[in-house]
Amino acid sequence: MGAWQPLPDDLPPEVRHFVEQLRQLKDRTGLSLVALGARTAYSKSSWQRYLNASQPPPRQAVIALCRVAGTGRDEAERFGVRWELAVQAWPKPAVMPAKAEPGAQGMHGPGEADEAREVCEEYEDDPTLPWWDAPPKEPEPSSSWLLMAAVALAVVLVLTVLIGALALG
């Protein structure tokens, strides 16, 4: 804990601040990256990328870390705001050229350049949550049920008016 590699010098301040705060929160848990991965459903290698500013974490990963660290609601909301600011400022990965120069295969074997290009696609927040972290969904009343209830109330109102008129008349 606390022996983090230095962050790149060219990081925007919002990203640097967010990652530093995320590192402190991770250190506060006292968990290794492997244990953190097991508790949050995000792998050790994913946490390494997030905590070394190689890749922005999905919002759900930040929420999961806040939950594991036992943050209060206010602190978790501050992390959410920091995440939004950081993701907006996060440097976009360089797009790899579609075709490598002849003889410049380097470390990439056949087909690996396509995989690397996919990794370098623009970042999007992953909207998925592990099933155990997903908030329970409240059933939404269907519009047909509401229509039936409105018609029933209208019938009761009309009957009440008719019975009242007959009783007076």
Describe the protein in words.
Helix content is 56%, strand content 0%. With 169 residues, it is mostly helical. The chain has a domain at 13-95 and 109-134. The model is unreliable at 99-109 and 112-132 (pLDDT under 50).
Q: Any key phrases for this structure?
A:
single chain, 169 residues, mainly alpha
Distance between the termini: 87 Å
Biggest sheet features: none
Percent of residues in β-strands:
under 5%
Q: How confident overall, as mean pLDDT? A: 78
Which structural class best describes the helix and strand composition? mainly alpha
Helix content: 55-70%
Number of strands: 0
Number of helices: 7
**Radius of gyration from CA coordinates:** 27 Å
Q: Identify low-pLDDT runs.
A: 99-109, 112-132
Shape: elongated
SSE ordering: HHHHHHH
Helix-strand layout with pairing:
Blueprint: H1 13-29, H2 33-40, H3 44-51, H4 59-69, H5 73-89, H6 112-119, H7 143-168
In short:
Helix content is 56%, strand content 0%.
